[in-house]
Specification:
By secondary structure, the chain is mainly alpha-helical. It is about 65% helix and about 0% strand. It has one domain (about 1-75).
């Protein structure tokens, strides 16, 4: 019985994760920015305030405003772009 309940919970969590992929990516990109200035600002806020929650967008924006750092530009990963001289571009035109 315990195995059935755990399996059902894992399936439910997996389904929720799969249906909200873009939301999860956006949340992760905001909480763990690529930009050095934003990343350092969040680290400083976390070190000075034990209750700082980097997953909360309002707290991140307050942190950036307090340290005078602009919020990061969020990059959502998509399909890679092809260089102009890539042979695959010519092959797509031929078909």
């Amino acid at each position: 019985m315990k195995d059935i309940v755990i399996s059902a919970m894992l399936i439910a969590v997996g389904a929720i994760g799969l249906t909200n992929v873009d939301t999860i990516r956006h949340l992760y990109a905001g909480a763990y920015p690529v930009g050095t200035a934003q990343r350092d600002a969040l680290e400083r806020c976390a070190m000075t305030n034990a209750a700082f929650d980097r997953l909360d967008a309002a707290e991140r924006n307050d942190c950036y405003a307090h340290l005078k750092v602009g919020p990061p530009t969020v990059r959502v990963l998509g399909p890679p772009s092809m260089p102009k001289d890539d042979i695959r571009r010519e092959q797509q035109v031929q078909h």
